[in-house]
């Protein structure tokens, strides 16, 4: 039972420098299950397999409309996981009550719009600081490590620092969706945001849209300590199996990190 922060000993500084953590997001195992109702495929089984394949933690987004992960999935993950659970959620009273009930190791606050296909952009921490600060404080007091999902801009990073967020997760979606010079520019923005986070004393994670093709340059940024990856891995699992897809991603991350620090 490692789902709760107080039960999970964080890696030492040397471990953090050596190993970039991988959080596998299992939302879309639940998407496939929900296409038919019923119980298969089971996201908790996928979570266990992800851990065997090299995931350091499991990420799950409980959306307001419950389109993939369900309340019962969160209960089972909280009870059964032996690695940290990172609960992604909107900053709403309903979600806060659920998080306080389960007290997962980590909570990542994300913006949520009902009609969006996925989390389309980062939080407006600069515009909604007072609201978000209350969530950061209450969840931190409950023992959760709170991160804010933000776009890689100095304004959002500084605002996260100003409200005392211990962690940010940088949205890599625009980088992944672009090509050529635009992608290079986006990568530079992510690297600058990660450096700014470090300067502010904020732990830096990254994720959204990462693939075998896009992961290495992000993994090579030394101040990023965790990547959260889901949709691509679950898609690849159709072709190569979940175990193989995660192992390949893990290897790509480790290789990029090793080359960058050589
Ligand atoms: N990080 C956050 C905060 C997210 O909202 C998501 C998508 O749920 C991810 C990471 C994973 O993104 P993807 O499924 O595109 O890999």
What does this structure look like?
This protein has helices spanning 13-18, 27-36, 43-52, 71-80, 93-102, 129-141, 154-162, 173-177, 180-200, 212-219, 231-240, 242-261; strands spanning 21-25, 57-61, 85-89, 106-109, 145-150, 167-171, 203-207, 224-229. The chain is 50% helix and 16% strand. The chain is of the alpha/beta class. An eight-stranded parallel barrel has the order 1-2-3-4-5-6-7-8, surrounded by seven helices. The relative contact order is 0.14. The termini are far apart. Residues 5-13 have low confidence and may be disordered. The protein is globular and about 45 Å long. Helix 11 packs across helix 12. It has one domain (16-261): TIM Barrel (Alpha-Beta Barrel), CATH 3.20.20. The chain is built from twelve helices and eight strands. Pyridoxine-5'-phosphate is lined by residues 25, 27, 61, 88, 108, 110, 118-119, 149, 169, 207-210, 228-232.
